[in-house]
Amino acid sequence: MLGDKKVTRRDFVKGVAVGGSILVGSSLLGCAEKKPEPTPTPKPAETPKPTPTPPKEPIKIGVLGPLSGPFTPWGDPHLKGAQMAVEEINANGGVLGRPIELVVRDTKNNPSESTTSFEELVYQEKVVAVIGPVSSDVGMATSRKADELKVPLFLHMAGSEKILTKDSRYTFRTALSPAPVLMQALAEYIKTKGYTRIGAVVADYGWGHAVKRGIEKYIATLPDVNVQIEVAPVKEADFTPYLRKMSDLDPELIIATSHPPGTAKIAKQGLELGLKANYIGPNFPKKIWESALGDKVTQGMLDFSAVDYESQEFIKLAEKYYEKYGEELDFAGTTGYVNIYHLAWAMEQAGSANPQDIANKIRNGTYKTPLFAYPLSYVEWGDLKEAREVIVTFKPGPPPYNPKAISHFEVEYITPPLTPPEPES
Questions:
Q1: Are 214 and 179 in contact (CB under 8 A)?
Q2: How many CB atoms lie within 10 A of CB 34?
Q3: What is the three-class DSSP state of 207?
Q4: Which of 332, 349, 381 minimizes the C-alpha distance to 63?
Q5: Which 3 state secondary structure label does DSSP give 201?
Q6: CA 198, CA 204: separation in Å to the nearest integer?
């Protein structure tokens, strides 16, 4: 990360000129006698006024995230984490001697509006990179635009394996592996637990169907494992009809990873129906888990993460985040924070804020952060080269950085580095 620099404040002293003359009159009677004037006191030399240094043009980074709609729980903390990183970097002198400025746009979970906003960020705001897309449909659209305009794009929560192609050069995954990789990791976890009955609720859009393909490829093919998959609309709120269909299966694990907006509701309604299963989410915000389930969040809830919640660096950052926002730092906030420092690192390493130079440095370099369980390094088309999946469970009691929480994360399982899927075209 960038080193600390003290900022020196200069006091400029304006010289003051002092001088004068004295006229002395003679007697009012007779002729006046003119006396010589005293030699004037020389004026001190004035200190020249310094020429003001023009403010350095900021380096603009676009934030294109879901600030409204069903994916807002990921958009808001991601933005806050990014803002905190920008404040830290600017306080320490900026990047390449220039401050960073965020330019924020709401995707509204609309692919068409997102591509229009991407163009506006590039053409009008002159951003050098964009971070933040959530939803595979939005990720797909903005990824194509990133390659067209040759501006790097960091995906936040857009995990369809179809987003990246063999020709992708400007889109990079950061903290969410593609859906097939997640299901490959989950298959390994299922084998270690000995589960044989698996249910899944899938959202009817790009990400949901990507997870479905992963389930069918890696989990449904496991020996002696029975899988039941139900597909629901993205905006569905009542999952009881889909869960009731699983009663005969009596699942040991229900995959809610494939329906991000409905994750907590799926778990809550499943518990209310008496399904005695564990539930796993898709890097779902912890505060939403707790708000929906209360103390029951510790009854078998699981989630994926890229974050190393047990590292001292994460704990220190989480304390600062809580002090600033009064909220618990989660996966999304950490990702926003890391995204900004990753871009700052790339610019410093490249010695340039040119978008093409930034993309080349990201693609060909390795950014190491103790906040993640793996370094950020890439294959040619922008997929994560060394990603590892961390599966966490909820345990009773707050973490040291959020006294209001009712639970804390504990690592349940961690995979070895996973091989990204090769794009079909």
A1: yes
A2: 10
A3: helix
A4: 332
A5: strand
A6: 19
For residues 23 and 25, what is the distance between their CA atoms, to the nearest angstrom? 7
**30 Cβ partners below 8 Å, 6+ apart?**
none
Query: Which positions ≥6 away from 55 have C-beta within 8 Å?
Result: none
**Tokens matching residue 275:** 């399904």
Taking alpha carbons only, the member of 344, 306, 309, 327 closest to residue 87 is 344
- Run of H or E including 271: helix 263-272
Closest CA to 161 of 183, 133, 146: 183
Of the candidates 199, 244, 201, the residue with the CA atom closest to the CA atom of residue 225: 199
pLDDT in tens, 106-165: 999 999 999 999 999 999 999 999 999 999 999 999 999 999 999 999 999 999 999 999
- In angstroms, the CA 284 to CA 336 distance is 15
CB contact at 8 A, 358 and 342: no
Spatial contact of 372 and 308, defined as CB atoms under 8 Å apart: yes
Distance in angstroms (rounded) separating the CA atoms of residues 324 and 383: 33
CA-CA distance, 129 to 340, in Å (whole number)?
A: 10
Give the integer Cα–Cα distance in Å for 104 and 424.
Answer: 33
Q: Is the CB of residue 289 less than 8 Å from the CB of residue 301?
A: yes
Place of tokens 């580095």: 417
What are the backbone angles phi and psi of residue 386, rounded to the nearest 5°?
-125, 25
Q: In the block, which residue shows the tokens 């009773």? A: 396
Residue 340: both structure tokens together: 């900004």
What pLDDT was estimated at residue 5? 41
Give the pairing of strands 226-232 and 278-281.
Answer: unpaired
**Is the model more confident about 54 or about 87?**
87
